[in-house]
Design a protein that fits this description.
single chain; about 450 residues; alpha/beta; Aspartate Aminotransferase, domain 1; Aspartate Aminotransferase, domain 2; 2 domains; seven-stranded mixed beta sheet; 13 strands; binds pyridoxal-5'-phosphate
Length: about 450
């Protein structure tokens, strides 16, 4: 008996006890039995596994409406005239277990503040995780630096630390790992490489509120950690972001940069505008929403964790379904998304897109996730620009193009399947629906070929 069959049997034993003895004895082909039971696929006109909708997002409990109205009526809408943004920063720093937090207008601007403050300059190179939301690439380009991709570890969905060192050049200044989908990157290895090569580490924790690595919060493991509070995120405010850190001097410079380069703390008033700055400030309204949303974030995180572990237990033995694995040292995901890899070989070669369509038809909302963005249009657009041609030699840009091959990331982009964080806020019955939807497609895969 091969491994697949064995795990298949274990799966059957927990889902379908009545027929298991006969199947184990080899008397009934497992697939035929289950196929009959599960019925016609919804995409082919059958009854869907689920007709209920999923938890809508964001959730608003009216608890902050009075406070919102009072800020509105006060006219103190900007942090310089109000207290809400500062209050939020204190609360978020405490939640993260870090000394300081700077609220920003969004996650993209949080990353820009971090890159700028840590001295990433035009013509520098930054090692970036390729499997991420596009903002991670964009901020490096906006800083006029070169995002150099290190391949992805398909099992953990995060940057493969063993692929980082080969990408370091004399121009490399930073590593930008992403705790993507809420899954912590292998920070011990990344920090060790950074130390060895004298690089700074900026964590893109824009999907990783309350995720943990060796029981420390993601965002507190590198030099600076960046968060997003965009509408879809687990801590939403429409738009919003934060940079967190423990170094007062660096955090003072972050503050100064995010508010037009005005003096702040250790950024002394040697003149009115001692450093170059920008406006990346959060409004008082965003902070009011965030403090209200923070009341539920820990409870939500526990619910997602419990449901994710349960869902994994239900689907891990379905052939061709490989749930995410935590990286070495990672102790907790934030479950912004629940991911697994879909191996079409075990599904009679049915392409992932067809699997996704069939699963959606069963009432199970799902997505295929990121594409191979390292080959997306923005790369050539930037490399061909006048600025980049001035900043980087023809030889370097040629080599960059030649080395921009990420076979593991390409494969992951073809196989990933995601479920949204809102789905994980349901109960066990909701997780059963997801598992049953996948199983139904597996059992009836021959009807899709
Ligand atoms: C959302 C997100 C960002 C950008 O945040 P915005 O608030 O949308 O600007 C950056 N990186 C990752 C991984 C994200 O998911």
């Amino acid at each position: 008996m091969n491994k697949t069959n064995q795990s298949r049997r274990q799966f059957m034993a927990t889902t379908c006890a009545g027929t298991v003895a006969a199947i184990a004895a080899g008397a009934i082909p497992a697939r035929a039995q289950m196929g009959k039971k599960a019925g016609t696929l919804a995409i082919l006109g059958g009854q869907p596994v689920r007709s209920k909708s999923w938890q809508s997002w964001p959730v608003w409990n009216r608890d902050a409406e009075e406070e919102m109205i009072s800020v509105l009526r006060s006219g103190n809408w900007f942090r310089g005239r109000g207290t809400k943004v500062s209050e939020f920063e204190e609360k978020y720093a405490a939640l993260m277990g870090t000394k300081r937090c700077l609220a920003t207008s969004c996650g993209t601007t949080a990353l820009l503040v971090a890159l700028h403050t840590l001295g990433i300059d035009a013509g520098d190179e930054v090692i970036v995780a390729p499997y991420t939301f596009i903002a991670t690439y964009n901020v490096v380009f906006l800083t006029k630096a070169l995002p150099v991709f290190a391949d992805t570890d398909q099992e953990t969905f995060t940057i493969n630390p063993d692929k980082i060192e080969e990408k370091i050049t004399e121009r490399t200044k930073a590593i930008l790992p992403v705790h993507i989908l809420g899954l912590p990157a292998d920070m011990n290895k990344i920090n060790a490489i950074a130390k060895k090569h004298n690089l700074v580490v900026i964590e893109d924790a824009c999907q990783a509120w309350l995720a943990e690595y060796q029981n420390k919060k993601c965002g507190t493991l590198g030099d600076l950690g960046c968060f997003s509070f965009q509408n879809s995120k687990n801590l939403p405010a429409g738009e919003g972001g934060a940079v967190i850190g423990n170094d007062d001097e660096i955090m003072d410079r972050c503050y100064s940069f995010h508010s037009c380069g005005r003096p702040y703390g250790s950024v002394k008033r040697t003149s009115n505008y001692p450093i170059v700055g920008s406006n990346r400030r959060m409004t008082e309204f965003q902070a009011v929403i965030l403090m209200s949303q923070m009341e539920r974030i820990e409870m939500d995180a526990d619910t997602r964790l419990e449901n994710a572990l349960y869902l994994t237990s239900k689907i891990k033995d379905i052939p061709g379904i490989i749930p995410y694995k935590l990286a070495n040292g990672a102790t907790r995901s934030a479950y912004h998304l629940y991911p697994f890899r879909y191996k079409k070989e075990q599904f009679d070669g049915i392409p992932r897109e067809k699997f996704l369509a069939a699963l959606k038809a069963e009432g199970i909302s799902c997505a295929g996730g990121y594409g191979p963005q390292n080959k997306d249009g923005l790369i050539e657009q930037a490399l061909n620009s006048r600025g980049y041609k001035r900043l980087f030699s023809e030889k370097r840009l040629k080599q960059y193009r030649e080395e921009n091959h990420l076979p593991d990331n390409d494969q992951l982009c073809k196989e990933a399947v995601w479920f949204g964080q809102n789905m994980l806020l349901g109960d066990k019955k909701d997780m059963d629906d997801i598992a049953n939807g996948i199983l139904k497609i597996y059992e009836n895969r021959d009807s899709l070929v």
